[in-house]
Amino acid sequence: MEDFEERALDLAPHKPRCWFRYVDDTFVIWPHGPDKLQDFLNHISSINQCIQFTMETETEGHLPFLDIDIYRRPDGSLGHRVYRKSTHTNLYLNAASHHHPSNKQAALSTLVHRARALCDQDSLHAELVLLKDVFKKNGYNNRQIYRVLNRRPNISRPEDKPGSVAFLPHVGAIFNRISRVLSRHIIKAVGLPPYKLSNFLRPVKDSLGLRTPGVYSIPC
């Protein structure tokens, strides 16, 4: 892809102001008008017939890119915040579900970490207020929400790491008692979530696998 990009941009009669790619998603700022933008799209799609591009342009000052909503501020600069599709339900691991408390804590901490990583200073407060409401709708109480919103990053040290790890089914108080016994022997217990209904059902699709035996190669 790096070789493709270099050739495509070198041969382009008009070049974007910036070109940022993550895997197969590219963010571009184009200063030459919509007509030349369509010409540029046709150009990069003509370099290799196996590599074809589609395009999504800014709408009402917003452009989603990966999990980020990039928006245009009144002064013309760009801001960024968390992006959610219109079909997003805000349903996460419920507080009443039969999972280890650390699993529930991790679900909330991940969302808070994402907010702080993706939001600019203008958008962070509104995102945290939204997450607080989302956590309440998923059954978490004020104490749990306060703890996750005010938690400091955990910096682990080599001496803090356990000697071994045991993966055990999470069965309420039994798991907690076993965890305390194992911790005395420097063994960390990790609770496995219960089986879902899909684990007991046969898959509805047949596994394709490799259709014919042999050595598979990808020409470069």
From TrEMBL:
This is Helix-turn-helix domain-containing protein. Residues 91-147 form the Helix-turn-helix domain. The lineage of its organism: Eukaryota, Metazoa, Ecdysozoa, Arthropoda, Hexapoda. Pfam families: HTH_animal (PF26215).
